[in-house]
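Sorry, explain these tokens?

***
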Amino acid sequence: MAVSELDALFLKTLEDDYDDDEPWKAVHTLRKLGTPEVFDRAVEWCRSSNGSQRARGVDILAQLGSGGDAETIESFQMRALPIILELLEKEKAALPVVSAISALGHLSLPAAIPMIVSYTKHFDPDVRYAVAFALGSFADDQRSIEALLTLMKDDDHEIRDWATFSLCSLGDADNKEVRAALTDALNDDDEDVWLEAAIGLGRRRDRQAAEPLEAILNDDPSNGPAREAAKLLLGFEETSDVEVEKSLSALRNMQAWGKTR
């Protein structure tokens, strides 16, 4: 690709608002290109005096080489990690921090966990949300578990929702603390949070999930995660429409049995 074309793509990532589709299309195009030239330019932007450029540089590095083979992707990941960690060591602006933490989640390299969890109690909710997202890539690591349990109690419902999903659907952690947190989350005011909690308990074959899972499947029989959680809770082998009907009946029986104990 000619230099002028590469320049145009990089500049396009700065057009419009950060979350708009067009700049993100340019980011995805650059990621798929996965050339040394793109890497070098992204690194330059990570060290720019412009916060938007730093954020976009990190966004590109996050999944650079996504259009190539596994070896190429891994090579870029290993080279990108120290660049992103270097940025976070001195970064103060929220947008580049959010981009960098999210990128560390995409890289899926355990060496990034200490840096990610250090932002668990950051004052900016966008940063904490990025932490909840990123730790989903390391959901069974004890450091992630502790941070996600903290974020499950966050004031922001979107953060609680993603933390619950990361810990309980992306990971398999199962102990008294995790189950207690999920049980508490069943009473959350936000529907998405308690839905994730019910699914998490179902996946762990905890009978407390029977009532909320029945409510979810009654309302939306096509809810895939709830169907899967009910299947695991009940020991069923399939999640067909017929099995959903059987699941609802079994879930009601499980609740009735629990009340007579």
Summary: The CA atoms of residues 19 and 114 lie 27 Å apart. The mean pLDDT is 90. Residues 70-90 form the longest helix (21 residues).
